[in-house]
Amino acid sequence: MSETSPTSADRARDAILLNMGPQHPSTHGVLRFVLHTDGEIMHRAVPEVGYLHRGLEKLAEQQTWAAYMPFTDRINYMESMFCNQAWAMAVERLAGIEVPERAEFLRVIACELNRIANHHITLGCMSMDVGAFTPFTYLLRERETINDLMEALCGNRLTYNYMRIGGVAHDVDRAWIAALEKFLDHFEPICDELDSLISYNEILVKRFIEVGVICQADAVAWGLVGPNLRASGVSWDLRRDQPYSVYPRFDFDVPTAAGARGIEGDCFRRWLVRAEEMRQSCRILRQAIAALPEGEIRAKVPRKLKPPAGEVYACVEGARGELGVYAVSDGSDRPYRAKWRSSSFSALSIIEHISPGLMIADLVAVVASLDTIAPEMDR
Amino acid sequence: MGALRDYFAAIGRTIVTLGDGLAVTFSYLLRKPCTIQYPDRTPEPVVSMLPERSRGFLEADVEVCTGCKLCESACPIDCIHVEIAKDESGQRMIQRFEIDLSKCMFCGLCVEACPAGGLRHSHEFEGGMGDVRHLYVSFLDEPVPPAKKGKTVEPKPLGSIIRARLARPFDPYRGDRPASGARAPLSRGGEP
Questions:
Q1: % helix / strand / coil in chain A, to the nearest 5?
Q2: Tens of pLDDT, residues A150-186
Q3: Can you state the angle between helices A267-291 and A360-370, rounded to 10 degrees?
Q4: Which helix (H) or strand (E) holds A293?
Q5: Of A185, A256, B90, B101, which sits most exposed with the smallest number of CB within 10 A?
């Protein structure tokens, strides 16, 4: 697919090949770019992936349907909850399991918390990659509170393994809900504080504005999803447009940052979309807490689950957009095949397309703004 | 002329927005610090600050183990080894109950599977060892008979079992130390 040695065209224009990564602090994981450049301006940047391949799809074939759940945590450690949910939804659809309402609400609460935590890291890393270190520490502090909440909810801070086939593992109590409300009360003003701290900081704006522009048609053609797609002006959100779980009951906006500074599809718009999404997640959380019904948290599922033969594609709107799993059952207690559709992979693949004419320093901003996570691409 | 005006306007905006940001930063001088000085200056040990569901090292209470081996089959990565065999008098005995904590990924599926409540996650997490093999923990000193269903014992304090076990490292070679470089008997089912 990509060339990692100089072509005759490269030689003709005195281009050199420069390796960025695989061990580079700004590539967000073990990810390598081969830069074709003759100075600061790149002719092309070719991403090389595969350094973090752990065979997670193959591993599914050796596990029972339920025992694969902890592995989904590791597909993307930033949005474990969404991977959990995608897998749980896939198996539930295959086996025809009805999830209790309370469990669906708890899933939404856990997922939206996870989305906020993910955007903390994304925005923090974006600012850090262009040289602002302080916002990263501030956002990490907020994320720490979410980690504490998650630990109280499901026992772990990063690899949650919270969901089960047919529901969730643990119920919440009043004290946890109170802690979550306290966090929301504290966090909502922080969103505005973040704006004055860094979002509209002119130095950051100048680094992001009109950089790495992805036009609407390109974004659709390259399969971008989630905040990256929305920043390009396509208002598409699976929670609203292809409803799953109990999302239709909540009132929330799908931000596209239209009309803000910058142009459609540049890095700054991607920043703004994420900053706004955190507010919208807070809105969903508030509504979910208020409407949390009583009842069971786990459907009755046989210990040796054997879904009937068939195939299913289940997708959720993860923090990076559509996160889907295609699962095939042959009627046995183990998956026949599991294939993940990850948003980072499509986001990374567009870099080769938009890199010509980009400066090397701007590539760092573009990679950060696309919010790619190396383990999710390679799986 | 326009370009020049833009240039100076940008400088002006930079100064104003930098001031905004620094005002936020300055306000933190007056707020309560949230840093925890781990590990030596916490108000109480971190282990006791963790929430109830926190998943630390696994610990097994073999006194209530019925030898059903459900935990072993629930473990996605085969880090639990339970061996049941008859001794000379024909009595069913738990011969081995070992957990490779270096492999364990703290998913909690075994705890959910255990019908006797003999397996739980402690809050212990500080398990730095000089040798990774010392994280291979045996919960048995000698073969014990499996407990009758429904047997209850005085609950032991959380973490006390695993703390005691980690304090005196278990040698997975168990006497017959193979030539150096050979692997410890970690395979499933008890065969070396």
A1: 50, 15, 40
A2: 999 988 888 888 998 888 888 888 899 999 999 999 8
A3: 20
A4: none
A5: B90
How far apart, in whole angstroms, are the C-alpha atoms of residue A255 and residue A276? 6
Residue B106 contacts A where some CB pair is shorter than 8 Å:
yes
> What ipTM does the predicted assembly reach?
0.77
Q: To the nearest whole percent, how much of chain A has pLDDT over 70?
A: 94
What distances in angstroms separate CA B68 from CA A148, B88, B104, one per listed residue? Answer: 35, 21, 20
- Token pair, residue A251, equals 């009132």
SS3 of residue B135 by DSSP: helix
Task: Give the Cα separation of A300 and A316 in Å (integer).
Answer: 23
Spatial separation of the C-alpha atoms in residues B12 and B130, rounded to whole Å: 58
Strand A337-341 relative to strand B80-86: parallel, antiparallel, unpaired?
A: unpaired
User: DSSP string spanning A169-215?
Assistant: S----HHHHHHHHHHHHHHHHHHHHHIIIIIT-HHHHHHHTTSS---
Burial class of residue A76 in the structure, from the number of CB atoms within 10 Å of its CB (0-12 exposed, 13-18 middle, 19+ buried): buried
In chain A, the residue whose alpha carbon lies closest to the alpha carbon of B53 is A155
Please work out, in degrees rounded to the nearest 5, the angle formed at the alpha carbon of residue B80 by the alpha carbons of B76 and B84: 125
Give the Cα separation of A181 and B52 in Å (integer): 20
* B35 exposure class (CB count in 10 Å sphere: 0-12, 13-18, 19+): exposed
pTM of the full structure: 0.85
Q: What are phi and psi of B42, to 5 degrees?
A: -85, 150
Q: Are A72 and A86 in contact (CB under 8 A)?
A: yes
Span A227-282, pLDDT tens digits: 999 988 888 888 888 888 888 888 888 888 777 788 888 888 889 899 999 999 99
Query: Which residue, among A234, A236, A215, A376, has the nearest Cα to A317 in the 3D structure?
Result: A236
Task: Enumerate the residues of chain A whose CB falls inside 8 A of the CB of residue B76.
Answer: 63, 67-68, 70-71
Q: How far is CA B58 from CA B48, B109, B133, in A?
A: 16, 11, 16
Residues of B102-129 as b/e, b for ≥16 C-beta within 10 angstroms? eebbbbbbbbebbebebbbbbbbeeeee
Smallest CA–CA separation between A310 and chain B, in Å?
24
Q: From the candidates B6, B72, B77, B107, which should be mutated to test the interface with A, based on the most A CB atoms within 10 A?
A: B107
| B9 in A contact zone (CB under 8 Å) | no
Q: Which residues of B touch A63 (CB under 8 A)?
A: 76
Shortest CB distance from A193 goes to which of B24, B74, B76?
Answer: B24
Kindly list the residues from chain B whose CB atom is less than 8 angstroms away from the CB atom of residue A70.
Answer: 76, 105, 107, 109
Q: How far apart are the C-alpha atoms of A201 and B21, rounded to whole Å?
A: 7
Return the closest-CA partner of residue A1 out of A342, A339, A352: A352
